[in-house]
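Re: that chain you flagged

S.,

Sorry for the slow reply, it's been a week of failed gels. I finally had a moment to sit down with the sequence you sent. For the record, here it is as I used it:
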Amino acid sequence: MARAAESAAVQALRNVMQRVQQASDRANRPVSQVRVVAVSKTKPVAVLQEVYDAGYRHFGENYVQELIDKAPQLPEDIKWHFIGHLQSNKAKALVTGVPNLYMVEGVDSQKVANHLDRAVSGLGRQPLKVLVQVNTSGEESKSGVEPSECVELAKHVKEECPNLQFSGFMTIGMLDYTSTPENFKTLANCRERVCKELDISVEECELSMGMSGDFELAIEMGSTNVRIGSTIFGAREYPKK
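Prediction finished late last night. Pasting the structure tokens below so you have them in one place:
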């Protein structure tokens, strides 16, 4: 059987999916409510293709140029997620260079939202899903709006950016990319307030939280979107033996 020759990344992804299932079970949530984004930064296209061939479609990148370089080399039905801080002057290049961009995680200012909105309007594509990035740890080095400003930015995207679809919130957590239950709770509180104030259902408002080190906890605390890099693809640049 071909299965014996499965790549390390595909095996690792299967293992992650099993852990997602178990975390969902513990939280009494259907596993269908949790999306896994395979974050493939610094990894060669061939490795992504193996994961794609195993049936996987949601991939994420952190650098605009890397995503613009990779996207044309891979199948068009991949759903790309741009993850992290996006400079407003790169919004147009990103949207133009990646026609199959599925979601931007996340928008952290009205300026970035406006640039993305304009870029999408010029393309005649479906509205682009965006998550508002919230700085839940209070660390200066982290991008994202303060939790107290989350409603205001979500409202701006929803009401002033017709080519964007406000789809929820994301957070990165602490400096070492781990998160505490408090970080996750803060994001869930943002969702609660926004759903109430903007009159949108909780199902329409995603929580993107949880990475390789803490995705199980995140799922147990309500995450709908976990971003897994090193656990699937190995450490960046220096693959583990």
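What I noticed first: The radius of gyration is 17 Å.

Talk soon,
D.
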